[in-house]
């Protein structure tokens, strides 16, 4: 047993951190004037918290007033508790949890299981943002990572440092976090994790002290997950091949700063709310990536190359290819991009093709952009984009190349079909759409041992949802109210399986 010596003078600590937390909360609250300090804790967080006796509903007023400081000191004078933490069988850690510090719970355990599943740290660098009691830092040290952590609550910093040394480990633990102040670390990390404060300020129930609240409530107007990713990218904190794990609400990240992203695990609470563990990584890291002003066909170019993720984009093709051996004509302001998306024997061209369409929609997110099965993206019934997957087998094996052609600009195009262009919705540069597509394709298709596996059935459901915007399929004169897709991406209508989009109208 050890003593958290510096709990002896909570007033001193509060002085140093009160303004910090106040600033952070004020900044998170953004435009509404920032007075809802005492927001909610949802039941799931509240349950069994154990350290927050004497809660009371606070009026809406200034952030962290003198009265709050007095209450906070009272809270801090409560003795710390000791707990035995066992995230999974045979992993047991004794932790001391000071008042105001978040103890490990079900969400912590989810992250713990994932850290354990990642295997030995082998001296790689681990950073936990919002380290709380230090449970995950202790676990990561045990797994062989070199551990750093930070928390805006100085009691969490003390708890993490204390719990690490009581378990025979060391770490660099600092006060601070993602907020207005300079981020407390500058080096690069191989694994960065954050169990986000995910309680919504709108869920009003009872109150915690400012420190507990700062650890639990995401009142950032941009979302703390988004802010975290931006901060990691701008401070260049992620090592080559580094991974970020963020645990938060399903909707807590909507801007990944061009990092690929995929759900790894999830917990569903009794009230139906879902907390998801998202993994982020650099898309197709290390793969060749070129832009050429002009070429014959970017798909063809890639058959001379190898390596999943290898990518070429161009703004002019002289022999662009479309489906059914048709030409894909370059027009002014066109985007042409191709990726090697699979190599080997287990290739599913239908799934790849549909994922290409979904990647376009995920890169742009406009309701007027609609997926017409199997490979067209339409605006108001006119084609703006096409996807072509081609495979070729050589002595080296089979390779699948996915190509995406997009009309970025309208103009006088000498083509005999009515076309649409993205500038009807957005003005977007070639380089920007290229980075977004690279990120979304990797999110849907990339395989690596240390990223979450592709959830094929979920991707299929997302594609079906997108297809519904085209209306109902009509095939051989019959209109179908419902439809589905099989594992090969073929359209299922009643008992019929259709593999060619030309035979289907959408009404
Ligand atoms: C279609 O709708 O028929 C599919 C068109 C696919 C065109 C793209 S542009 C990039 C890549 N290179 C090609 O030669 N074709 C694809």
**C-alpha Rg, in Å?**
26 Å
Spatial gap, N to C terminus = 71 Å
Annotated CATH architecture of the largest domain:
3-Layer(aba) Sandwich
Helix content: 25-40%
**Assigned CATH class of the largest domain:** Alpha Beta
Helix count, DSSP H or I runs of 4 or more residues: 12
Whole-number mean pLDDT:
84
CATH topology of the largest domain: Rossmann fold
Strand order of the largest sheet: 5-4-3-6-7-9-8
Characterize the main sheet.
Answer: 7 strands, mixed
Explain the overall architecture:
- The chain has 507 residues and is α+β, with helices and mostly antiparallel strands.
- The chain has 3 domains: 4-281, 3-Layer(aba) Sandwich (Rossmann fold), CATH 3.40.50.150; 289-470, Bira Bifunctional Protein, Domain 2 (BirA Bifunctional Protein, domain 2, 2-Layer Sandwich), CATH 3.30.930.10; 471-507, no CATH class.
- The chain has 12 helices and 22 strands.
- The protein has helices at 10-29, 43-46, 66-76, 106-117, 135-142, 154-166, 210-216, 224-234, 298-302, 349-364, 430-445, 456-467, and strands spanning 81-85, 93-97, 125-129, 146-151, 171-175, 189-195, 238-249, 260-268, 274-281, 289-292, 311-314, 334-343, 369-372, 376-379, 382-394, 397-407, 473-475, 478-479, 484-485, 491-493, 496-498, 504-506.
- It has a 7-stranded mixed β-sheet, with helices on both faces.
- α1 (10-29) crosses α3, α4 (106-117) runs parallel beside α5 and α10 (349-364) crosses α11.
- The longest helix has 20 residues, at 10-29.
- The N and C termini lie far apart (71 Å).
- It binds biotin (BTN).
């Amino acid at each position: 047993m050890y003593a958290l010596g510096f709990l002896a003078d909570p007033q001193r600590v509060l002085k140093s951190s009160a303004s910090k937390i106040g600033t952070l909360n004020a900044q998170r609250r953004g435009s509404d004037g920032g007075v809802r300090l005492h927001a909610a804790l949802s039941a799931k967080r509240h349950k069994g918290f154990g350290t927050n006796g004497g809660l009371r509903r606070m009026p809406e007023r200034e952030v962290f007033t003198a009265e709050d400081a007095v209450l906070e000191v009272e809270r801090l004078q409560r003795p710390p508790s000791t707990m035995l933490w066992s995230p999974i069988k045979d992993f047991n850690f004794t932790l001391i949890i000071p008042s105001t510090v978040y103890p490990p719970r079900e969400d912590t355990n989810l992250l713990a299981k994932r850290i354990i599943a990642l295997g030995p740290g082998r001296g790689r660098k681990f950073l936990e943002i919002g380290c709380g009691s230090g449970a995950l830092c202790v676990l990561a040290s045990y797994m062989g990572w070199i551990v750093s952590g930070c928390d805006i609550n100085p009691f969490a910093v003390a708890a993490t440092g204390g719990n690490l040394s009581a378990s025979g480990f060391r770490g660099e633990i600092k006060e601070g976090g993602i907020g207005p102040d300079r981020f407390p670390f500058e080096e690069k990390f191989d694994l960065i994790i954050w169990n986000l404060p995910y309680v919504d300020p709108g869920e009003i129930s009872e109150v915690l002290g400012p420190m507990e609240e700062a650890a639990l409530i995401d009142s950032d107007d941009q979302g703390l997950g988004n802010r975290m990713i931006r901060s990691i990218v701008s401070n260049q904190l992620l090592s080559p091949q580094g991974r970020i794990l963020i645990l938060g609400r399903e909707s807590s990240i909507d801007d990944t700063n061009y990092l690929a992203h995929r759900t790894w695990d999830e917990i569903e609470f009794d009230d139906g709310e879902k907390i998801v563990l998202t993994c982020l990584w650099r898309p197709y890291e290390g793969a060749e990536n070129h832009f050429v002003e002009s070429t014959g066909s970017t798909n063809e170019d890639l058959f001379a190359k190898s390596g999943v993720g290898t990518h070429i984009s161009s703004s002019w093709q002289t022999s662009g290819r479309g489906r059914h051996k048709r030409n894909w004509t370059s027009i002014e302001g066109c985007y042409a991009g191709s990726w090697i998306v699979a190599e080997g024997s287990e290739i599913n061209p239908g799934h790849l093709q549909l994922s290409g369409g979904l990647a376009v929609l995920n890169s742009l997110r406009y309701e007027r952009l609609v997926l017409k099965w199997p490979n067209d993206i339409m605006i108001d019934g006119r084609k703006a984009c096409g996807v072509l997957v081609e495979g070729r087998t050589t002595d080296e094996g089979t390779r699948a190349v996915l190509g995406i052609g997009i009309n970025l600009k309208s103009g006088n195009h000498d083509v005999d079909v009515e076309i649409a262009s993205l500038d009807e919705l957005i003005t977007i540069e070639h380089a920007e759409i290229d980075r977004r597509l690279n990120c979304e394709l990797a999110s849907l298709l990339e395989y690596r041992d240390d990223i979450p596996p592709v959830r094929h059935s979920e991707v299929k459901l997302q594609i079906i949802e997108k297809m519904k915007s085209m209306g109902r399929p009509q095939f051989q004169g019959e209109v179908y109210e419902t439809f589905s897709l099989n594992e090969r991406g073929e359209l299922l209508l009643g008992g019929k399986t259709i593999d060619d989009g030309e035979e289907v109208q959408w009404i």
